[in-house]
């Protein structure tokens, strides 16, 4: 096979990539939910989202061990739903990741601006983005080592924050005030920001081809990753909400250091928290670049995108996919609209989740003898994930009508591109299936 990725990842590195992709969601972004609902309403949203991600990741582990492919969801959907289904899943993944990255980069800019007010947020975001694009071009082994280090530091930062803030929690900040603010609609509006706590956790599947032993390593990395994230998400929310006024918290660009500043005053602790917070944001920026570059690589290799995107350099890095996809992400950094970008990213994520769970059900019936080294409790667990994902879609649509038109327009353009490009390439479903099956068989052997 040409254009192969190198197999170097161990379970601890996969765990680092998975947690790193997501951990920025603990440091910022989620707090915008308190503009729409109360802390109690947000707790409900968080619990619903946590149940979803737990059931989803166990189900996703079955798919990713049965089909350890760099395309992740596009590979699963292609095998279950055919070429068009694979394209829609892959495009949804790109929407999720390419919009998540600018939001994270802007948050990095906000944290740098907190430390050095003279540095503009957008400029800092673009510089940080560019630095980690270059690191990713050095290959997965280097990228994974960097990701593991910054992820561990970021986890340490959250534990420091929880330890410093927990003694000062005032339950009235959580349970007092307008408890039913926004009602059910407010909880629906808060769901995208609760999703932000876990968004991109499924990106570890795009590193499946680079695992030394994907059949064993993926379940270990996935399960340990989601357990780590659930603990950190709940701890971060309760401490931040418990030491801050909800209305003030909803407007904070860098909520954790700002919350500590409210207790201890401006100084060493809040500045240290802001500095460590950069590691969390960097971990996600770096990890998601790994994710969307592999998705672009896999979609190119499968015939969905131009072939040059599947070329790798001497380090085994899909350098063209890394650079081109990142330039697209940088364009959205220039908008400066973090909250809107988060919502658009969530639309892509939810579409991906629905397609992936439908693919699991179809493959269970269509290919019952498919080698599944890890099996989820079927059909209960994937059914819960699918139902909640559909609720997410309704919640996102109802609470973000003004953004829906942009999302629908993007998918319409993507579908037009798909049919035009497919016709130009003369690709057909059987060729694509053979391409996927050849890669999957190589992994199985």
From TrEMBL:
Keyword Membrane on entry: yes
Alphabetical UniProt keywords: Membrane, Transmembrane, Transmembrane helix
Gene3D superfamilies reported in the protein's UniProt record: Amino acid/polyamine transporter I
Membrane topology: Multi-pass membrane protein
Stretches assigned to the Amino acid permease/ SLC12A domain: 20-420
NCBIfam families hit by this protein: 2A0305
Stated name of the protein: Ethanolamine permease
Biological classification of the source: Bacteria, Bacillati, Bacillota, Clostridia, Eubacteriales
């Amino acid at each position: 096979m040409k254009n192969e990725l190198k197999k170097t990842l161990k379970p601890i590195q996969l765990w680092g990539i998975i947690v790193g992709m997501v951990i920025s969601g603990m440091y910022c972004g989620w707090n915008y939910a308190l503009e729409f609902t109360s802390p109690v309403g947000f707790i409900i949203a968080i619990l619903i989202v946590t149940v979803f991600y737990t059931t989803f990741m166990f189900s996703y582990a079955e798919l990713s061990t049965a089909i350890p492919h760099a395309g992740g969801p596009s590979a699963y959907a292609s095998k279950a739903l055919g070429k068009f289904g694979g394209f829609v899943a892959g495009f949804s993944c790109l929407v999720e990741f390419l919009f998540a990255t600018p939001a994270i980069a802007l948050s990095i800019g906000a944290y740098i601006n907190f430390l050095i007010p003279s540095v503009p947020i957008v400029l800092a975001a673009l510089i940080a983005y560019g630095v980690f694009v270059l690191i990713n071009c050095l290959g997965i082994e280097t990228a994974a080592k960097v990701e593991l280090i910054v992820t561990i530091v970021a986890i340490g930062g959250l534990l420091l924050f929880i330890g410093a803030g927990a003694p000062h929690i005032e339950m009235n900040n959580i349970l007092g005030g307008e408890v039913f603010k926004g009602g059910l609609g407010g909880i629906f509006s808060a769901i995208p920001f609760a999703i932000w706590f876990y968004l991109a956790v499924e990106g570890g599947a795009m590193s499946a081809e680079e695992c030394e032993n994907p059949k064993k390593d993926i379940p270990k990395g996935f399960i340990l990753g989601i357990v780590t994230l659930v603990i950190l998400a709940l701890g971060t929310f309760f401490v931040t909400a418990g030491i801050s006024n909800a209305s003030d918290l909803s407007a904070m660009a860098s909520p954790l250091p700002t919350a500590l500043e409210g207790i201890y005053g401006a100084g060493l602790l809040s500045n240290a928290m802001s500095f460590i917070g950069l590691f969390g944001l960097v971990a996600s920026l770096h990890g998601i670049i790994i994710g969307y570059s592999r998705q672009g690589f896999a979609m190119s290799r499968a015939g969905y995108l131009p072939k040059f995107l599947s070329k790798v350099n001497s380090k085994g890095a899909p350098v063209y996919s890394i650079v081109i996809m990142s330039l697209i992400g940088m364009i959205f950094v220039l908008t400066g609209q973090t909250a809107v970008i988060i919502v658009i990213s969530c639309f892509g994520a939810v579409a991906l989740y629905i397609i992936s769970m439908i693919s699991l059900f179809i493959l269970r019936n269509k290919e019952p003898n498919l080698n599944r080294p890890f099996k989820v409790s079927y059909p209960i667990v994937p059914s819960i994930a699918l139902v909640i994902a559909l609720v997410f879609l309704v919640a996102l649509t109802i609470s973000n009508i003004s953004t829906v038109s942009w999302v629908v327009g993007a998918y319409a353009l993507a579908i037009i591109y798909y049919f035009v490009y497919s016709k130009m390439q003369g690709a057909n479903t059987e060729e694509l299936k053979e391409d996927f099956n050849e890669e999957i068989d190589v992994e199985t052997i």
